[in-house]
Inverse folding.
């Protein structure tokens, strides 16, 4: 019996876990990137998982892993935006006389 549905259910829970993070970053304009090494570990692990799915032709599981990788990258880019670009762009301009 194939148990693909267990992997898909676990991926759905992981994807749902990203929603509060997106909400917090966008509403609070969270400016900390956190530990950069954890982002590298998450991205590497997800990339290896995608490679595993490609080799075994498990396309359903690969699709959910690609979505998770995209969400991970999106959160990193949002945090980077609020840390570097948003603060520089929207700082009050003070004229020095």
């Amino acid at each position: 019996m194939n148990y693909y549905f267990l992997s898909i259910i676990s991926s759905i829970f992981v994807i749902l876990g990203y929603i509060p993070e997106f909400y917090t970053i966008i509403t609070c304009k969270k400016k900390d990137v956190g530990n950069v090494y954890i982002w590298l570990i998450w991205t590497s692990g997800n990339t290896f998982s995608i490679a595993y799915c490609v080799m075994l032709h498990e396309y359903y599981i690969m699709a959910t892993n690609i979505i998770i990788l995209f969400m991970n990258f999106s959160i990193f880019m949002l945090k980077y935006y609020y840390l570097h670009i948003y603060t520089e762009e929207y700082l009050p301009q003070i004229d020095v006389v």
User: Anything to note?
Assistant: Residues 31-89 form one domain.
